[in-house]
Write a structure and sequence with these properties.
Elements: E1 2-6, H1 11-15, E2 29-30, E3 35-36, H2 51-62, E4 69-73, E5 79-83, H3 85-95, E6 101-102, E7 108-109, H4 116-123, E8 129-133, H5 136-146, H6 155-162, H7 166-175, H8 183-187, H9 198-208, H10 215-224, H11 231-247, H12 260-267, H13 274-285, H14 296-301, H15 317-333, H16 340-344, E9 359-363, E10 378-382, H17 383-389
Parallel strand pairs: 3-5, 4-8
Antiparallel strand pairs: 1-8, 2-3, 4-5, 6-7, 9-10
Helix pairs in contact: 2-3, 5-6, 9-10, 9-11
Bound molecules: zinc ion.
């Protein structure tokens, strides 16, 4: 990778031909048309409240450096802003009369109303720019480094930069557009912010089966970059969403952020009765024995077999110690072992007194049969017998 440091450009050079569009997908240009200030992968301009915009101008007037700007040189000879988009947009907007600052005389002033010396000071402020040219992986690595300074990009913002092209811009039109009428519904199932590319990331995760390995998202984007066809991405996403809608009649807060792509792949070929599922889900959500309700949906999809998904409440240390003590005293009195299951076996452990550490707590009546996690439903078993019992 080649890096060049440019120090002979000023604010005025970059503002030459500056264009600003409020529409989300529109690029912003500068430096006589050769600089793309808002490449498609960049986060949206977020200084809009005016405060940070003004701070950038105050810094220039005080002669403070704006910090490093990073550009990427593209193969067509144009440049894209990698880091510094917001700062550039702030001074560009000020020079083109989009907002005012409070001058020393306490008056609001647009650029044109400033005294000439201040205009010149802003126009002639020198900029420090790093220009980078290189391969995908070099730029990727570079991203990781520059993220130490400036605001952090999300993982998907980085991927959009690395695999930029038609695929990304088409996909963004659907998945990164917060005014998309479906967005509200999607966001009840998916965590994250469309503007930070997190809905797009999830759509890509579903289609590339990347639940366990984010590198599969990179691979998918790399494979589809050239053709720019998003049909599969779109169809897969819609299938998952339609399936969630038709299988689950209620939208619950805990549904947000589940691994819907994986759940769809695993279960969509089975038939379900939505009414029955809804009833069971409501019952399970009301069950105070379940510590983490987010497993409920997979639990019911799987025919309520795997209780491990539910993180059913476990016995606390005090309960275990009390039950152990009671059980052990009784066992010693009767000259038998303290694991009731060992006693039933005609083996050497029949009279064995296990230590507390060698035993585990067990629900006498399993949770799935309505057994509570309280002292009356607790028995201590040796580790082997507890594991044999399995399904608590
Ligand atoms: Zn035992």
């Amino acid at each position: 990778m080649e890096t060049t440091l440019i120090t002979n450009l000023t604010v005025s050079d970059i503002c030459n031909g500056f264009t600003y569009s409020k529409l989300e997908e529109k690029g912003l240009f500068g430096w006589g048309g050769q600089l793309i200030i808002q490449p498609e992968y960049q986060r949206h301009y977020i200084y809009g409240d005016g405060k940070h915009d003004a701070d950038v101008i105050y810094s220039l007037l005080k002669g403070y450096p704006l910090g490093l700007l990073y550009f990427v040189k593209r193969c067509d000879g144009k440049y894209e802003v990698l880091d510094g988009q917001q700062r550039i947009t702030s001074f560009g907007r000020y020079l083109t009369g989009h907002f005012s600052i409070i001058d020393e005389d306490k008056r609001e002033k647009q650029f044109n109303a400033l005294p000439d010396d201040k205009k010149d000071k802003i126009r002639n402020s020198p900029l420090t720019i790093y220009v980078c040219e290189g391969t995908e992986s070099e730029i990727k690595q570079w991203f990781e480094t520059i993220n130490i300074v400036g605001m952090k990009l999300t993982d998907q913002e980085k991927r959009n930069a690395i695999y930029s092209g038609k695929f990304v811009s088409e996909a963004k039109k659907i998945f990164s557009n917060s005014s998309n009428t479906n967005m509200k519904k999607w966001r009840s199932y998916i965590k994250g912010d469309p503007k930070r590319q997190e809905i797009l990331e999830e759509a890509l995760r579903w289609v590339s089966m990347a639940e366990k390995d984010n590198k599969l998202i990179d691979k998918y984007m790399s494979d589809h970059r050239e053709l720019g066809d998003i049909t599969e991405l779109k169809n897969n996403f819609e299938s998952v969403i339609d399936w969630i809608n038709s299988t689950f009649t209620d939208v619950e807060p805990k549904m947000k952020g589940l691994e819907w792509g994986r759940l769809w792949r695993t279960y969509h070929e089975q038939g379900y009765n939505p009414e029955f599922l809804s009833k069971r889900i409501q019952e399970l959500l009301a069950d105070t024995q379940i510590e983490d309700p987010s497993g409920i949906w997979e639990y019911v999809l799987g025919g309520e077999q795997d209780t491990r998904l539910l993180d059913v409440r476990v016995f606390d240390q005090r309960t275990k110690a009390l039950v152990y003590q009671k059980q052990t005293i009784k066992a010693k009195e009767g000259h038998i072992g303290n694991c009731p299951d060992c006693v039933l076996e005609a083996k050497a452990n029949k009279e064995k007194i296990w230590s507390l550490k060698e035993m585990e707590a067990d629900h006498v009546t399993a949770w799935s049969n309505g057994g509570a996690t309280d002292i009356d439903n607790c028995q201590m078993l040796c580790i082997r017998h507890n594991r044999l019992k399995g399904n608590r």
